[in-house]
Amino acid sequence: MSKFNDERAVKQSKMKRDSNVRHATDSWISSVREYDYVYNFDWLGIPVIQFPNDLVVLQEVIYESKPQLIIETGIARGGSASFFSSILALLDLMECGEDGPPKVRRKYLGIDIDIRQETKSLLKQHPILKMYASTIEGSSISENVLNEVDKISKDFNRVMVVLDSNHTKDHVLSELIYYSKFVTKDCFLVVCDTSIEWDNKSLWMNKREWGPGNNPMTAITKFLERNIEFSIREDVSDKALISSMRNGFLQRRHNL
User: pTM above 0.90?
Assistant: First the structure.
């Protein structure tokens, strides 16, 4: 297996340096954005609103770091809650050994300023979500919400965070500052929609507050200037190519 992994790493490195591949990838992502391509996919019957490539890579980092708690800002229609909860359930299943039926040891915590009524209904009815997911309604950077997250996170030794709410630089930077404190050593701080930075400006003009120059990627750049305990795992994000999370996988290497 190590030979296979070594050969794969070499090819990934070459692919990363291939300007033709990068140009074709960026062009394709920009071309399909106007058709809301990421809306095409479900996870366990719920719209997940992510590139399939990103879901596979997220699964990889979850398996690698084995968090006990995943905190996500931005719930939308509940597909990501379903995705993260199901992967956590699989980890619990893998660790049950000969102790009998798997126990719910892990949790997903979703935060959104306005949780849709249909999403609230899913949380109560969906088998996986009922067992694994809980939510907080409110601004992800409000004092009340942060205090509640802090209280919940104290019950877990390994914590991962995914940021996928408001995509402006200022909002994401605030989230990075606040939520990075919850991420434990060797776990990941994942920032979604960094790919906006490489989009054609015309795609976002007069449509959203964010766009090239004002987005999650510009927030990451500013955050990393003063937070040396985190680093971008380029080997994780580069291999996906078709991704909304380019350079968005930050791993906590040590605590200050």
Answer: yes
What is the mean pLDDT, run by run of 10 residues, along the chain of 256 residues?
A: 89 93 91 92 96 97 98 95 97 82 91 94 92 97 98 98 97 98 97 91 78 95 96 91 95 80
Which residues fall within 8 angstroms of residue 76, CB to CB, at 6 or more apart?
A: 47, 49, 112, 116, 119, 164
220's CB contacts (< 8 A; 6+ apart) are 172, 176, 191, 194, 232, 247, 248, 250
Report the alpha-carbon distance of residue 189 to residue 186 in Å, rounded.
10
- Chain segment 87-138, per-residue pLDDT in tens: 999 999 998 876 677 789 999 999 999 999 999 999 899 999 999 999 999 9
Number of domains in the chain: 1
Q: Which domain holds residue 147?
A: 2-252
Beta strands 249-252 and 230-232: pairing type? antiparallel
DSSP assignment, residue 70?
E
| CATH label of the domain that carries residue 46 | 3.40.50.150
Instruction: From residue 241, give the alpha-carbon distance in Å to each of 44, 203, 249.
Output: 25, 20, 13
